[in-house]
């Protein structure tokens, strides 16, 4: 009994919400108007033959189908499946390939000069890139010991202090 009261209380709370309280009567009113407009219900009026769906008239006799002699369709005999089991005939096309263009003309072969490389000019910096092993040196510039410049030495001599 207690479960039924709980169910009824939740149903009453649901029915008292605004959407249900206004929506249910509105739907009932619209349904009644639609029912009146469509005049649903039993149609007890007299039979009206013009409202009967049109049916095709059947003939009493069947006319035989006449095929031209010797051209009976395969589907009548039941051998139309034989065409599907036979591979289609292959038609091969023959054509002449386009003419091959002549090979391009290459310049005459000139052997290259081999020998020691020339020293770089003064405009290039006057030294080779790997003259002092720069290419093999993988240390960063800040890792290398700094050369002491003249101003730092002069400051150290004048004040007696060094930066380190």
Care to give the gist of this entry?
The protein has helices at 2-15, 18-38, 74-77, 81-85, 150-159. By secondary structure, it is an all-alpha fold.
- The count of DSSP E runs of length 2 or more, i.e. the number of strands, is 0
Q: Could you estimate the helical fraction of the residues in percent?
A: 25-40%
Based on Cα principal axes, name the global outline.
Answer: flat
The chain-level mean pLDDT equals 75
Series of H and E elements: HHHHH
Q: Could you characterize the architecture of this molecule?
A:
This protein is mostly helical. The chain has a domain of 37 residues. Helix content is 33%, strand content 0%. It contains 5 helices and no strands. The longest helix has 21 residues. The protein is flat and about 130 Å long. The model has no long low-confidence stretch (mean pLDDT 75).
Label this structure with key terms.
single chain, 164 residues, mainly alpha
Break the fold down into its secondary structure elements and pairings.
Layout (H helix, E strand, L loop, with lengths): L1 H14 L2 H21 L35 H4 L3 H5 L64 H10 L5
């Amino acid at each position: 009994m207690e479960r039924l009261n709980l169910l009824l209380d939740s149903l009453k709370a649901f029915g008292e919400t605004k959407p249900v309280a206004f929506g249910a009567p509105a739907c009932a009113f619209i349904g009644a108007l639609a029912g009146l407009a469509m005049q649903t219900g039993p149609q007890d009026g007299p039979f009206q033959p013009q409202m009967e769906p049109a049916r095709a008239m059947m003939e009493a006799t069947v006319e035989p189908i006449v095929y031209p002699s010797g051209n009976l369709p395969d589907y009548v005999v039941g051998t139309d499946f034989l065409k599907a089991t036979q591979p289609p005939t292959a038609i091969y096309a023959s054509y002449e390939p386009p003419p091959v263009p002549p090979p391009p003309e290459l310049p005459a072969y000139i052997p290259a000069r081999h020998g020691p490389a020339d020293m770089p000019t003064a405009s290039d910096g006057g030294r080779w890139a790997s003259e002092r092993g720069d290419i093999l040196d993988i240390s960063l510039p800040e890792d290398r010991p700094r050369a002491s410049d003249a101003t730092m030495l002069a400051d150290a001599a004048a004040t007696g202090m060094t930066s380190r």
